[in-house]
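ok here's D-aspartate oxidase-like, seq below lol
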Amino acid sequence: MKIAVVGGGVVGLTTAGFVQAGYFHNADITVLASDFDNTVSHVAAGIFRVGASFCGPSEAITRHWIKDSYEFYDALRKMNDASRAGVTAISGYIFANSSPNVVKNHWLEDVVPVYRRANEEELKLVNGTWKYGSYFSTLLTQSTLYLPWARQRLHANGITFKQRDVNSLKELIDDYDIIINCTGLGARQLCNDRRLVSLRGQVLKVKAPWMKMFFYGELDTYVIPGFNGVVTLGGSRSFDSENMNVCPYESAAIRERCETLVPSLKNAKISRQEVGLRPHREGGVRVGEGSRISNHSEAIIVHNYGHGGYGVCMAPGTARAAVDSAVQLYKSTSSKI
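and the structure came out like this:
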């Protein structure tokens, strides 16, 4: 059996791993992507924090995806080469003045080890007169480490990587039995999915090794420490914008907000500024929904895209679900089993 996973970001690579580890462990697996080194996954801070806007087909399924994802990364955190995989534990705070609901998170509160209300002293840990706050511990997966580690591990286990522009999924039906579409924003063209739009984000990466905890404020303000003293400062959300150029005014605004929140960041040197286009999908992420591509072919396609800004943290849960869907569809439609 030959299987193609289309997409070289965190969703694609994680899905390829589940393909090999599951029912299709003896398959000939290829990961296809136009670019493996410049994906929106590389821009993300990678903190495991699922926002209220993320949703699957039902609350029960969404909670299952979140639990699977957290357990996947937590298992990596416990491995000997967790530092190479870019996975670590992290804790910090979210503060708000507008509403106590801002600092609550119904997706995370029953998943992470600690999620509690901040006390009066903790509300003063950063600048500002905050009314509401929560402290929680979670995980961080730094994609600049995780992606090359995952590629190396998959390659060592026999998975092939090919750099290729795929203009239509029908191009693949003569070469592969199963095609799993993990193309993120690219699925807009490949699937003619008009629900999919870009959600442009811009962040700064600064050197601030003294930062050990993350902090969230309002107006999409966040300070998230990563590996090797690099801290992500954010952020921005520009709906339906595909401008990949760094905006200096936006960078200045981000830095001002973050330095106001954490004044010690005024001493942090900027290492780079980055822009990414999140694949936001109205109605939620598309997982499964398998079908035959063509009446004259037995090839089937399964989808796994539309994660918005939660691709890194949610990739394992949706990858497992997509592969399960592929197994069931293949069993039910193919005479090969």
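fwiw The chain has a mean pLDDT of 94. kinda neat tbh
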